């Protein structure tokens, strides 16, 4: 049998491809330029019967002149982590090397002597740094929650857990953005040393105290090795708050809930009488009206709901005249939130940027410690966020600064539903207390925190 053109018979009698390139689609022959060539340094092997090629490429090693500086840098960093060489120590080492080179170049023995002296000082610093520190360090705060202006005390106790005397060292304690440093004397075996410190609490904040770390080094502070001994402790500096009139004083006027206007067959707030229909609860039959009319009459009630207080704190920096004005706004929001929780009302606390977890008085004040002014957000946007995230609110309190005009504040509060009681508090330091009520919105201008309780009583929420 004759094989078709382009195919050569194989030894087994089957037709196989002829030598040379295989025709492309349509029978076109590939050009010599597209033919596969085998590059130098590359081995090619057929992995499967589908002619899939596996290529192994040999990669040359990195040049020595490029690898050595990087390796030297890693070694220097390792030594620096071990000994804790300070910038002053590195400077002294460079000065010693330059003085030794200049002394040999210029023939000045004085420079050589100065270089040796620098090296001796560095060697002594190394001796101060080496060795183990057998310490047991404890950090305690007298109270982890204080009010602005109260003094917060802490105690740092360091004990030598070994039987040998330890050299003097330094112990550092980060307190917020500051760093407190205490000198540890030489401690004998099983001896201890106590340090009592005070944390300034002039501003509402969350102050991180610790972790305590010892710095073992030389007196010249050329080297120092740091070891962490304790965990960090958060100190919450709460805003100042005042007690407000509760249910008895009219802060939230209802005792069992607020009427919604919807009629129901069982509740507390009586609405009207109607004729009995099958299925009504006989407990609500009004027997006097039944005897007078001769028709079985039952009572109807207005459905009441538990008061849900929404407190919205404006944190836009452009709405406040000063930092003190913003701090007063935070204190007002905290005072109203605490009274709502004491009255066992459902509370939702939010700002222009986030919703805070107000599940208890302590957690509410902790959340307010981290609130700060931002350069974004508007008062209408805050109200819209409150309406969207707290749709079931019965009382809404909006706290803002002195920059929004009372008319703009009232206009923004009209976004709430008419059945929501709205109190808009406008903070203006030194201003006289004033209230203006229009429909369901009461605008309260407040000049100090002490004026808040009588102002809330006057607003009759």
TrEMBL record:
Keyword Transmembrane helix found: yes
Domain DUF58: 273-364
Superkingdom assignment: Bacteria
Pfam families to which the protein is assigned, alphabetical: DUF58
Location of region: Disordered: 1-56
Compositional bias (Low complexity): 1-21, 28-56
Transmembrane segments: 76-101, 113-131
Alphabetic keyword roster: Membrane, Transmembrane, Transmembrane helix
Record-given protein name: DUF58 domain-containing protein
Species whose genome carries this gene: Auraticoccus cholistanensis
């Amino acid at each position: 049998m004759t094989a078709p053109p382009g195919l050569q018979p194989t030894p087994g009698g089957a037709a196989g491809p002829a030598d040379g390139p295989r025709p492309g689609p349509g029978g076109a022959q590939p050009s010599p330029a597209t033919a596969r060539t085998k590059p130098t340094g590359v081995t090619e092997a057929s992995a499967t019967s589908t002619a899939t090629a596996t290529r192994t490429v040999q990669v040359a090693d990195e040049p020595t002149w490029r690898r050595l500086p990087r390796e030297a840098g890693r070694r220097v960093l390792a030594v620096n982590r071990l000994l804790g060489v300070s910038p002053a120590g590195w400077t002294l080492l460079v000065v010693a090397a330059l003085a030794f080179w200049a002394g040999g170049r210029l023939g000045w023995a004085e420079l050589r002597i100065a270089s040796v002296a620098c090296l001796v000082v560095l060697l002594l610093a190394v001796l101060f740094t080496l060795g183990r520190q057998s310490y047991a360090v404890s950090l305690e705060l007298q109270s982890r929650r204080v009010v602005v202006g109260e003094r917060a005390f802490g105690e740092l106790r360091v004990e030598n857990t070994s039987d040998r005397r330890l050299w003097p060292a330094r112990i550092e304690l980060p307190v917020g953005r500051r760093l407190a440093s205490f000198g540890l004397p030489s401690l004998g075996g099983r001896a201890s040393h106590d340090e009592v410190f005070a944390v300034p609490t002039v501003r509402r904040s969350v102050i991180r105290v610790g972790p305590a770390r010892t710095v073992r080094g030389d007196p010249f502070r050329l080297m120092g090795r740091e070891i962490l001994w304790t965990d960090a402790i958060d100190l919450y500096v709460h805003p100042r708050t005042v007690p407000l009139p509760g249910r008895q004083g009219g802060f939230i006027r209802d005792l069992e809930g607020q009427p919604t206007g919807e009629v129901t067959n069982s509740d507390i707030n009586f609405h009207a009488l109607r004729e009995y229909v099958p299925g009504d609860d006989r407990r609500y039959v009004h027997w006097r009206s039944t005897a007078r009319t001769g028709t079985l009459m039952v009572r109807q009630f207005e459905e009441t709901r538990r008061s849900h207080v929404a407190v919205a704190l404006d944190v836009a920096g452009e709405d406040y005249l000063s930092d003190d004005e913003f701090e007063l706004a935070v204190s007002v929001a905290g005072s109203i939130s605490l009274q709502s929780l004491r009255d066992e009302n459902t509370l939702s606390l939010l700002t222009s940027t986030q919703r805070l977890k107000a599940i208890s008085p302590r957690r509410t004040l902790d959340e307010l410690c981290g609130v700060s002014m931002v350069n974004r957000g508007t008062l209408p946007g805050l109200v819209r966020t409150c309406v969207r995230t707290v749709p079931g609110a019965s009382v809404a309190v909006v706290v803002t600064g002195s920059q929004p005009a009372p008319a703009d504040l009232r206009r923004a509060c009209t976004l709430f539903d008419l059945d929501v009681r709205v109190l808009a508090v406008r903070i203006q330091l030194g201003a006289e207390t004033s209230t203006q009520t229009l429909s369901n919105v009461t605008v309260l201008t407040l000049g100090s925190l002490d004026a808040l309780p009588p102002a809330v009583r006057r607003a009759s929420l």
